[in-house]
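Chain A, query sequence.
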Amino acid sequence: MAYVIIDKMSQLLKSGQLVTICVDGLNYTPDGFATGGIEDGGILFFEQIDLTSYPSWNDFKGRTTLAKTGDLATICSFIGRPYKINNDPEWFCYDVYEILIDGHVRHAFKQNLIPFKAD
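Chain A, predicted structure.
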């Protein structure tokens, strides 16, 4: 069953798609790399994640927006994957998207974005 979940998670999110932010236990990738800033139990999404240098010490740039688990965002576009990260689908958590959140355009790793499902 885990294989099916991984396969679904590795699919690209689409422009205009509504997503839920998930921060709980996901401020870092399984490899220990930060997915944004950490503040008040949430995550700080930045205007830009530098795909040429990530992971390093100065990857997140620009203004920030604080988000918490359960907040909603809209996918604007797929930005790409950091150049130092393998292109294998199993590394989907490193895919970077441009999102619209709280009226601001920011970059976010897929690890923190879950497709929205209405109850």
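The chain has one domain: 2-115. Confidence is low (pLDDT under 50) at residues 1-9.
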